Amino acid sequence: MAHAFDTTTAKVPRPGRLRPSAGRRHHAGPLTYLLLGLAALLSLFPLYWNVVAASHSGERVVKAPAPLLPGPRLFDNLAFAWNQVDMGEALVNTTIVAGLVALSTVLFSTLAGFAFAKLPFRGRGALLALVVATMTIPPQLSVIPLYQIITDLGWVDRLQSVVLPSLVAAFGVFFMRQFLIEALPVELVEAARMDGAHSLRIIWHVVFPVARPAMAVLGMLVFVQAWNDFFWPFIALTPDGNPTLQVALAGLGTGNHTINQAVVLTGALISTLPLLLVFAVLGKHIVGGITAGAVKN
User: Fold this and answer.
1) What is the pTM of this model?
2) Are 184 and 114 in contact (CB under 8 A)?
3) pLDDT 10s digits, 219-230
4) What span, in angstroms and rounded, lies between the C-alpha atoms of 64 and 135?
């Protein structure tokens, strides 16, 4: 005769012990705040010294010991640097170039990254390897043929000579491809196709919303790179013609066979302020986009 199962004496497996700190919010200690404060001071010191150098004369900047406190010539140096070269035109040109390069790179990189990540086609791996391999080629090797091309087209000292060679970047294609592999489920694309959505609609309503965090990060990186680019714009443009900021800075502070370092650093300060403004306005949205893209259901 089978004995009934006694539920009172049966041993129920006990759940694993939770650590006393499980579920508890951790707060930063004084040492953490001290280290973060030191890191912030070290990061901000170059910008602070740039402001200090821009507020002194050129003779005082190069004289040892270097000044550590602001001087009285900041506004004079700002006015002199602004008028010595056409800084206003350079700011507008740089904004146009950096904006167009960032916009086109994000758009084309997202489209190519989606194709490499989710669309099966013959030779996809070999073509991706070829795209990635182009990142190993030094840009100096393409200067001569690229300059010959823009000379034949009559684009010397025109903004399109700087924009068109940078419409897409291999790094951007690889970056977006890696993001979309994990963030975009292939079932989502297949469901959209079953609902009758064509490719452009899938890209607009499915791919772009999913890729928005990575697009924001890539756009910011490309914008900063294009804003600070000096090598090719210095070859394709001239300081007296149609310069970007970095090309205009090359003509600052010159005269009487000497270079006024205070004026040069004042121009560098002017070129840095718009980037700081962009980071201040869009930094929270970019960080929020990165956080949103890192959360998985």
Assistant:
1) 0.81
2) yes
3) 988 999 999 999
4) 42
